[in-house]
Amino acid sequence: MKTVLAVDGSDNSYEAVHALKYFVRVDQLTLLHALDVPRPAYPMMLPQVAEEHYKTLEQTMREDGERLLDRVQSLLPMHAGPSTKHLRIGSPAEVIVSTAEEQKADLIVMGARGLGPVKERLLGSVSHRILTLARCATLIVNGSVKGMKQILLPLQGPFDAEAAIRFLQLKPFHDSIEMTLLTVLPSTEPPWPGDAAAAAAATEILEKQADYIEGVAERLHAIGYQAHGVAVVGTPSTMILQEATTLRSDLILMGTRGRQEITRFVLGSVSHAVLHKTPCPVLAFH
């Protein structure tokens, strides 16, 4: 397994480093820091002066970046695996995605928010872009990681299930986990009150969903995971967040594209809502 750990010195970034203790030793760990060096924004500045200013700023940022990577490397868990440090100039999202593709990474690990002015548990612009552009799985860490035991796996359909199984076959977790598979049947109002036929049909669909999710759980049992299925009725994003809170999940493992799989450049509406309100880290797979 190959992993890219993208760091920027933020609190979430250091929590992402800490989260690696819950993952298996990797074959290759790339420690990556992107330098987004701003160009002088003074039109009256002489070109030679502007270029000198840029080079001075780049050198300062490069030295800071090297110190950051040294510190991150010193904080890695003992079992992390062989690591290399990479300092690259460019837009953080593009640098991270291109590096992951070059390294043929299976996983990108990063903090939810960088060093910007907004200090919330919301998804930052860089992590959002990586989720939409990256071809590999991405772990978004939004706060302190206390463990990696209880995992919630929402499934929106067969595409999600197959993608989840492909990722889980990599055996990414260091210790055994307990997985709750969740499928949500969107609630709909019957054509008219007291429609027994519509209610019976909804019950039958929910039972079929429950059977399907248990079938996926059995497939996970076969590759060594403890898993059980839950089928509920409600608004998908609301029920996922509610279940994660009730179970005190350490991680939400979920697909990002939704049912339509229109394009890899658009997050599904359910995953978008969950990612912006999640109480725990999210590992998104494609």
Q: Which key terms come to mind for this protein?
A:
elongated; ten-stranded mixed beta sheet; Rossmann fold; alpha/beta; 286 residues; 2 domains
Could you characterize the architecture of this molecule?
The protein has 286 residues and is of the alpha/beta class. It has two domains: 2-141, HUPs (Rossmann fold, 3-Layer(aba) Sandwich), CATH 3.40.50; 150-285, Rossmann fold, CATH 3.40.50. The protein contains eight helices and ten strands. Strand 1, helix 1 (11-19) and strand 2 form a beta-alpha-beta unit. Helix 3 runs parallel beside helix 4 (125-133). The longest helix has 29 residues, at 47-75. The protein is elongated and about 80 Å long.
Q: How is this structure best summarized?
A:
The chain is an alpha/beta fold and 286 residues long. The protein is built from eight helices and ten strands. Strand 9 (251-255), helix 8 and strand 10 (282-285) form a beta-alpha-beta unit.
CA(first)-CA(last) distance: 16 Å
Q: What name goes with the CATH superfamily of the largest domain? A: HUPs
- Pairing-aware structural class of the strands and helices? alpha/beta
Query: How would you write the strand order of the largest sheet?
Result: 3-2-1-4-5-10-9-6-7-8
C-alpha Rg (nearest Å): 22 Å
**Share in β-strands:** 15-25%
Determine the fraction of residues in helical runs and give it as a percent range: 40-55%
